[in-house]
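Incident review: delayed structure delivery

Summary: a single-chain prediction request sat in the queue longer than the usual turnaround. Root cause was a stuck worker, restarted by the on-call engineer. No data loss occurred. The affected request and its eventual output are reproduced below so the record is complete for anyone auditing the incident later.

Affected input:
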Amino acid sequence: MEKATEPKIIPLAEGFDEAGREDWTALAETVLKGRPIDKVLNTPTYEGVTLTPLYRRDESAGHDGPVNSAGGMDFTRGPASLKRNNDGWDIRQLHVHPDPETLNRDIKADLAGGATSVALKLEAGAGCGGAVIGTDGLVARRVDDLDKALAGVDLGRTAIALQPGEASVAAAAAFIALARRRGVDAAKIKGTFGADPLGALAETGELAGPLDRQMAALGALATWSAAQTPGVRAVWVDTGTYHAAGATETQDLAFAIATAVAYLRAMTAAGMSVDAACQQIGFTLSIGTDVFQAIAKLRAVRRLWGRVAEASGASAVSRIMALGAATAARAMSGRDTWVNVLRATCSCFAAGVGGADSITVRAHTDALGLPEPLARRVARNIQTILVQESSLARVTDPAGGAYYVEQLSDEYARRAWAIFQEIEAGGGMAEALLSGRVATLVGTAWSERERNLAHRRDALTGVSSFPDLDEEPSGVASPDLAALRDISERGRAGDRVVVPDGLDIEGLIRAASNGASFTALSKATHGPAVEIPALVQHRLGEAFEALRDASDTSLAKTGRRPMVFIAALGTPADYTARAAFSKSYLAAGGIVALEADVDSDSIGDAYRQSSADLAVICSSDTLYRTGAEACARALKAAGAPVVVLAGRPGEREAVWREAGVDRFIYAGDDMLATLQQLAGEIGMIER
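Output delivered after worker restart:
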């Protein structure tokens, strides 16, 4: 039998000249008509990184940097377990409803609908008497309240991630007391006790006792947890407060690592080994809507923690990071909230590609209040679809190897490492919070972002761009405040239950079983209070949404929204572009448009009949030169208190202002400031 001839392999690139960056640049600048690429296509980020349109292998960052790997293990990729690849990541849904029974129904619905673990946030006053009832988390004062919230939930199978604020020891004692009441084997309990006193201080601005006691409590709880509940991590670093206050992605990374180092020191000071301490720490990072930057952020943080753990002497296995991700609160808009579904999907996709072990997707109504069942279902299904239908978890680090992602991951890691070193040199994360250093950093970062939002360099769909003044409001749940006060009052009886002195975790568990309140269980951490200005939480669209709120108030009081008269001069070809721009521009401030296609002779009568609150002149530059002055004078004579011209004023600004034009609107102006000024001038808001 004749042997088959081997096929000839022809290289794909054969016959093509080798091209370099210079060749590509020359072709690209031809398309850009001679404009330099670095001025047109390069994009600066808030982290100080410049994103370029082309990344090449020979220009990408190497893998031998000081924060790249540790002990030969690739922590950038994240050593994903086989379980994650087969079953997907942990779908961890957040529960914040203050009423235990309502929250229990939400938990059961989420678990039945595909969620695999529960993040349970306690109301901020849980550990200090609860004098003020809030709606920022479960109102629980004793183990019985926790029992109601988790009724029917198998604590031996479902991971519970507590978010207890400063009441971590009390919440942990009550949770273990509940597990023992139900006969659950401690070795089967999974989740976290959520000890994060520095995060609680940043969020609320106060702790009921000095930091040394808080850190000692963290160390005692972690020591007990390591011995008694091997499936639980006692300490959980959550950077959501910093991110919502305006932190850049690299600042967020640095704060996470600096906080973890502070906790690592507290645990080793309590007598734990470095390996045991590292295995008691987990992380949750907030994830924005820029997919590639979010992926790079998650890849970078594993490198950072791997380097810290290596330098601390941890074994290779103990350097592996428990990494959670949550969709960013600041990205959620309070207007056109269905767009938040798209934002959350982008964030969740990035978190999945970036290798998060658990992901929490906020409800699309998060900015408005407590989510209703539909909002919870939509948030849950985003993850279910990405895991089950898109099989997104089946590939470990799918973005790895892309030169852009590799270089961005390296840039983030190095810049975050530099910030972390500065924090450490200044005394650590606690000192950075107490001194106001953190507040200054995030405040400066927010101010820069705020300027870009105001000028629409960072546009927000449904808020500053493409607003819908006729949108249907999204529903939110309303708690029964009287029932919450009753829970708090009944819990005061537990304040008198005897608890052990000091940080005897077993003794605290017994006291919790006897009905001790969270306040009593937190006694060992109380003392001279620590107070700092709480970090101010922001949402990207908050300033524009405040104007929309004022418009809603006007509608409720008068039966109509503030109205702008669009004085459209010439033919549709002359005014359509600027009229459409003006409508969208002013709608972002809650002002509805009435368009009038009339000539200059009848413009005054048309305005008087419209009952509008202000007028905008829209036309072409050619017609502006011949007709803008007469139009402005006619509008002023007709009683328009404010006359606006759509377009840059240029050299004719003085002439047009003299004719009656008060303001100019155009792409790239300070849109927010202009809308606020207009709202004040027409009485929509107080000046």
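Verification: The first strand starts at residue 43 and ends at 44.
Action items: add queue-age alerting; document worker restart procedure.
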